[in-house]
């Protein structure tokens, strides 16, 4: 990444930093922060996590290793010439969307609240790119790239360094005024912008609510998640059968899990999103398990077009719902629905249907 622009004075850089913060708000972000490329001890922590095998089948987490270490911890290896990282936060919880209450009725289908609307990757990447171009139009030549949860980068570590929040015991970035229901995005740039002066203090204290509430006890210690037990991993990342010993803990969660956020006291201060694209589609925030279990593949593909849910694929979607139906209150309707889907999709789904029928007393 090279640049031939005029060198900016410290005063000009400070004004630009202030302007970027204002422009980010105009672009629909709720917070903007700045950091250097130094991720501190997080690179070593990542390697320890990988060495322990906690990433499961997410082999991409171990890819992109350089002579200096994992590229995820080295933004200037991901984009040579990077001097600064602009981290941004965008709230995603749509107004009126229930979280804990919908989860309590085991006949309901619970989908992680970030996934109910449009795929955030496209929306946020577009906004970040527009912001980068606005900076470019102001100063002339600019080397930058925008990232949203789709590149080997430790975005939570960078967000913490930038003052967006602190990394909590549930490994999420927490903010005293906004909880954790938000997306993160980054702009890597060759601008020498001053970093945030003081990263936020960790305000978790002695609280362990997020660890205690986890249905599958996926946290092996504060700040350490064994993804192989995490419901988000099991319902989204994992292909093949879900381990039987973890199925009961999944409850009615069919795509992702919000429990460690629900349990966090700081989410009392979470804000509703004003972004229309995060509004739930097809009333999926209110859907029942039986309703979604009737979808054929064509319906699944049509209904989930442009949504994060598409990522799991139809077979795993039906696998997940089968498990949730096994955890639902016993009823003739559930048992008949399970029987009617046997033999229609795959052996993998049938195996989970058989388990569900056993749970249902058949």
Automatic annotation (TrEMBL):
InterPro entries: 4Fe4S_Fe-S-bd (IPR017896), 4Fe4S_Fe_S_CS (IPR017900), QueG (IPR004453), QueG_DUF1730 (IPR013542). [4Fe-4S] cluster 2 binds at residues 214, 230, 257, 260. Its cofactor is [4Fe-4S] cluster; cob(II)alamin. It catalyses: epoxyqueuosine(34) in tRNA + AH2 = queuosine(34) in tRNA + A + H2O. GO terms for molecular function: 4 iron, 4 sulfur cluster binding; cobalamin binding; epoxyqueuosine reductase activity; metal ion binding. Cob(II)alamin binds at residues 72, 149, 170, 173, 184, 232, 257-258. Pathway: tRNA modification; tRNA-queuosine biosynthesis. GO terms for biological process: tRNA queuosine(34) biosynthetic process. NCBIfam families: tRNA epoxyqueuosine(34) reductase QueG (TIGR00276). Monomer. This is Epoxyqueuosine reductase.
